[in-house]
Specification:
Strand order of the largest sheet: 6-5-4-3-7
Shape: flat
Number of helices: 23
Structural class: alpha+beta
Strand content: 5-15%
Low-confidence stretches: 21-30, 384-392, 774-808
Radius of gyration: 43 Å
Largest sheet: 5 strands, antiparallel
């Protein structure tokens, strides 16, 4: 039996050794594959980086191509970083194993096992290979960064060259230019007619279906927007003096909702045309440019109409009369039309391959017209004596006049690119910034008390969910915040696009903001911060659920004292909050090892005299966590009595009834007794002492006091009022009238009302309220005969009175 058992044992050992050797071979093979795969990725990235350098040189004069190359380089940077990150786990394992093996012996008399020597050599060689690969990733990252900087420099030079390029204006205005313009109009007409003929023959059903669904989408958005923000959309003519915020809100929503609905109609139309193959290649760019021009003109028209409000004087945001207001609406719309037409014709010139002279002549004419229109806008003056003049009217008009002269001067000297850029910023950027301002002010108006409750969505929520005004106001604040974020998220990218940035640039910035940036050794990212907040909230909610489960399912069944149960629940709450904070910090990407420095500094500070500060800090955390009182409670702490106004981590602010603010350290509120009149609710009892003369009937007094108390509307019927015959006083019968109030903070008003009523009723019933009487009598001592007086008494009487010692 024993030899067979030994053979089985050795066979098991041999199998285990074989398995270990196979596992080691597999691991080594996997490690070799890791290095080989990452080296292949690096080689491919090097080839792409070299090709990108050649592409930059070839596209040095094309901004769109440079932006595309920049996007490819950003993706390559991420790939290089992934390669470097892939080596980190294996490199950490190698360093740990080499530390365990220790250095090779230097003494000739010492020797190591061949397996150890072989493993050390293998690990050292693998580490060297990984370090070489990491060095290559660093070199490649530097090369890619150099190309990115090169692209940025070239794009800046292109932008500067475009603005500073000068042409001879006189050479482009000739009969040849007119012939070229006529030929271009004819070519554009033929292109559009041929496309429309193609649509009517082969794509008519798709054309009509796309238009129908586009109209349906726009109608849905328009009707929904009006229902949600009805009170903020329509100006009420019956209101003679609306507030400034109301006017801003109406201007914002009456501009945004129709403009967004119209933009949805155009975007859905273009998308469906493209999806159903209605658009040809040459028509696609022309239609997109035309839709963009129409949307911009409609948007600026709605904005100007909302701001100047020609028909409703009380809803205007500027102080002008009806005729100047209508004229300004026409001028702003014409300015937008000329600017949009210039952009559309530029696309037409590029699509049809128009001559350069025609493009220059067209841009010159557009910039001159826009400049003249802006000058005309600055020269419009309000008319009528009823107009409220503003001290800022003249500076604003002066700035507009100078802005209108700038493109005229630039175009006159031949700087067409600069003039065109200025006119675009005046019209489009100015409209966007004005709308953003209206949006911010509209969001501010939603924060007003009761504003959201009067809106369409507020009334709908109140009907369906029976929400109170306080809850609706909170929703209003939340929606106001969302509107601010939406205005920033839409307005800022659109303005950046007008300043020659591209979507690729904006998306790259957003990607970097989302994925994070490094400050020292800490990487902070928007996704990490949001993940940390969500993780903290999740663990905190889980802790609260565990507390309720522990108290309701475990502790309550064990018949444990309520104080012990509360202590256990509180301990678990603190522990859960600490764990939630640690998980949230870790998820946000903050290294927890850095907290050791904070803990060490805190301990050192406590040792040198920060005990009181830390005590107040911890006490504040306890107050905020346990909430023995909250903001608005009526508390009594020592000699201080008043309303809690603010609870911070160091001190608590209490406002006395004399309107004096008292700052109480939190440690005093934790270590001393604190009375809270409104801890659970505002129910409380008020005792009012009342005394009557001895000749009064106590039963009658009791009944009168009960009648007076029951007649007061603030006194509760249950518990009912009670009259206590407290004592036989020195000169009165002493009673206590005890009443309960639903709101103890109203006790001064109730006591004042009851005392006035008591005085009046006692006077009617002939019940006397006594007051202490003192008999003051001066008794002169008769002088004794001199011979009968004791000499010591006479001597004592002659002494002057002693002065009483003063208290320090």
């Amino acid at each position: 039996m024993i030899p067979g058992t030994m053979r089985q044992f050795w066979r098991l050992i041999a199998s285990a050794m074989l398995a270990i050797s196979m596992l080691a071979a597999t691991v080594a093979s996997g490690q070799a594959d890791l290095i080989s795969d990452q080296r292949q990725l690096l080689s491919a990235l090097k080839v792409k980086a070299d090709a990108a350098s050649a592409r930059i040189e070839a596209a040095s004069s094309d901004d769109a191509k440079l932006v595309q190359i920049r996007t490819d380089l950003d993706a390559m940077v991420k790939s290089v970083l992934d390669v470097a990150v892939a080596f980190r786990p294996r490199l950490n394992e190698i360093n740990k194993r080499l530390t365990d093996l220790g250095p090779a012996p230097t003494d000739a008399g010492l020797s190591e096992a061949p397996e150890v020597v072989e493993e050390r050599k293998r690990l050292t060689a693998e580490k060297a290979a990984i370090n070489v690969a990491l060095g290559e990733t660093e070199d490649l990252s530097v090369a890619i960064s150099r190309n990115i900087d090169n692209i940025a420099e070239r794009r800046r030079n292109l932008f500067a060259a475009d603005l500073s390029k000068r042409v001879e204006v006189t050479s482009v205005f000739s009969s040849q230019t007119l012939d070229e313009a006529s030929a271009e109009v004819s070519s554009l007409s033929k292109t559009v007619k041929s496309w429309f003929s193609f649509v009517t023959r082969f794509k008519w059903s798709s054309f009509l279906g796309a238009g129908f669904f586009a109209l349906l989408s726009a109608a849905f958005m328009f009707i929904g927007g009006r229902r949600l923000f009805g009170s903020f959309y329509t100006a009420d003519p019956a209101i003679e003096e609306p507030s400034y915020l109301s006017r801003l809100s109406v201007a914002f929503w009456s501009t945004l909702i129709p403009s967004a609905s119209f933009a949805v109609f155009l975007a859905v139309t273009y998308f469906l045309f493209d999806y159903f193959k209605v658009l040809r290649t040459d028509i696609r760019e022309l239609m997109w440019s035309f839709f963009t021009m129409v949307a911009m003109v409609f948007f600026i028209y709605r904005l100007a109409k909302a701001v100047f409000s020609p028909r409703l004087r009380s809803w205007r945001l500027v102080h002008v009369e009806a005729k100047p207001a209508q004229f300004l609406v026409y001028l702003f719309t014409a300015t937008a039309f000329v600017t949009g037409l210039d952009g559309f014709l530029a696309v037409v010139n590029e699509t049809l391959g128009s001559p350069l002279s025609l493009t220059i002549a067209q841009s010159f004419g557009a910039t001159v017209l826009v400049g003249l229109l802006v000058v005309m806008i600055s020269l419009v003056r309000p008319s009528g004596k009823s107009v409220l003049k503003s001290p800022f009217d003249r500076p604003y008009r002066t700035v507009l006049f100078l802005l209108g002269l700038l493109p005229l001067i630039a175009a006159g000297f031949g700087y067409i690119g600069l003039a065109r850029f200025v006119t675009q910023q005046i019209v489009i950027t100015g409209a966007l910034m004005s709308t953003m301002y209206l949006g911010f002010q509209s969001a501010r108006s939603l924060q007003a008390e009761g504003a959201f409750a009067n809106s369409g969505i507020g009334q709908m929520l109140a009907r369906q969910y029976s929400l109170e005004d306080v809850a609706l106001d909170r929703f209003g604040v939340l929606i106001s915040l969302l509107i601010n974020l939406l205005v920033i998220a839409i307005g800022i990218p659109l303005i950046l696009l007008q300043w020659r940035f591209r979507w690729e640039d904006i998306s790259s910035w957003i990607y970097k903001a989302v994925n994070g940036f490094t400050v020292g050794s800490v990487t902070i990212s928007l996704v990490g911060v949001l993940t940390g907040i969500l993780a903290f909230i999740f663990v905190l909610v889980l802790t609260r659920w565990f507390q309720r489960w522990l108290d309701g399912s475990i502790l309550s069944r064990g018949k444990i004292d309520s104080g012990v149960r509360h202590s256990i629940k509180t301990a678990f709450g603190y522990a859960g909050m600490a764990v939630a904070a640690l998980i949230g910090i870790s998820a946000a990407g903050i290294d927890l090892s850095s907290l050791a420095l904070v803990a060490g500094a805190l301990s050192l500070g406590i040792g040198f005299g920060l005990q009181n500060i830390v005590s107040n800090f911890v006490s504040g955390l306890i107050l905020l966590a346990e909430r023995p009182f909250k903001v608005g409670d009526w508390i009594v702490a020592g000699t201080t009595e008043g309303i809690v106004k603010k609870i911070s981590v160091r001190a608590t602010e209490v406002e006395t009834f004399s309107k004096q603010t008292v700052i109480l350290p939190n440690s005093e509120l934790i270590n001393a007794a604190v009375g809270n009149w409104t801890h659970r609710n505002k129910l409380g009892r008020v005792d009012m002492p009342i005394s009557v003369a001895y000749n009064s009937d106590p039963v009658k007094v009791q009944q009168l006091l009960l009648d007076i108390a029951r007649a007061n509307p603030m006194v509760l019927k249950s518990p009912e009022p009670f009259v206590l015959f407290r004592a036989f006083g020195a000169s009165s019968l002493d009673f206590d009238l005890r009443v309960h109030l639903a709101d103890i903070t109203q006790s001064p008003l109730v006591q004042n009302d009851v005392r006035f009523t008591v005085m009046r009723r006692f006077k009617e019933e002939g019940i006397e309220i006594p007051y202490p009487k003192q008999d003051i009598s001066i008794t002169r001592l008769a002088a004794k005969p001199a011979e009968a007086a004791h000499p010591a008494e006479v001597k004592e009487a002659e002494k002057p009175p002693r002065a009483k010692p003063r208290k320090s």
